[in-house]
Amino acid sequence: MTGPVALKAAYIVTWVILLGYLGSLLRRFRRVREEMKDLKRGGFTTETQRHRDTEAQRRKEFLFYHGGHGDHGVSIVISSPRPPCPLW
Amino acid sequence: MKQLFIAFVVLTLGLLAFSTYQALFVAPTEQTMGEVQRIFYYHVPSAWTAGVCFFVNFLASVVYLWKRNLASDALAAASAEVGVTFCTIVLISGPIWARPVWGIWWTWDARLTTTLVLWLIYVSYLVLRRFSAGGQTQVLAAALAIFGFVDVPIVYMSIRWFRTQHPSPVMGGGENSGLDPAMLHAFFWNLLAFTCVGIVLMAVRYRLQMLEEEVEAAHAAAALQGGAQ
After folding, report:
1. Is A68 on the interface with B (CB under 8 A)?
2. Which of A21, A27, B107, B118 minimizes the number of CB atoms within 10 Å of its CB?
3. How do residues B183-204 score in pLDDT, each as one tens digit?
């Protein structure tokens, strides 16, 4: 790799990383704003629904392995109070 | 506030354009290395900005452990992510410079290795924040950030403490160190521009984090309403 080629490569890589990161932030912004709009309308987005299903699955597994009575020295900690859990 | 931020973004873009022009066209070509030395004008400011971000992360983590407020946790998350981005640039642009100058992409010397360790520490911090479940995630992340920050001064001092293949300090490195004034001029413009880019990215990421927290709170409220029915 010659000097000028390395220089160009480094500059391109720098800007690809910075612009890529900025792009990912803007995508996440759009997603969060859409989710907020959905919440204001009173519905859940597909992503939220997926999250709710995952949380429910985790809780089921936890209760299956630990009995779910809280008498094993393990307390059930709710990771995030986002969606209503179907087991509650 | 929004107008102030937009003005700052415009100023940053102007600074970036000017500093790039300085680095590529105004700064003199280095005698031994030639054109490839100009990577220095992106590589070092990126490392500096990563260091600033990790310092902000450290301060925000201390404040979070002390006060337990949402804003400092959001700032910690934002600064760590931006810091990792700049550290990635350092770890990629460094080997690209090293290949034509040293003849190798990588060597396990103190500066390179401690920088890689730093990157891994903060990537693990982000992974912890992303995938850890439970109410203690923020506390654990803050503790990891405080211990992880120990590596930042080690990275900075590594080229002073150890005899490394990495070039010795350009500034403050003793009698024979220093830059040509024209190079120094370009270097400081780039340092300023990259710091401003880091601040802009941190501000955007901070805002995103706060919005995500708002959405979580709204979900919680919706869940409580659903549970009450």
Report:
1. no
2. A27
3. 899 999 999 999 999 999 999 9
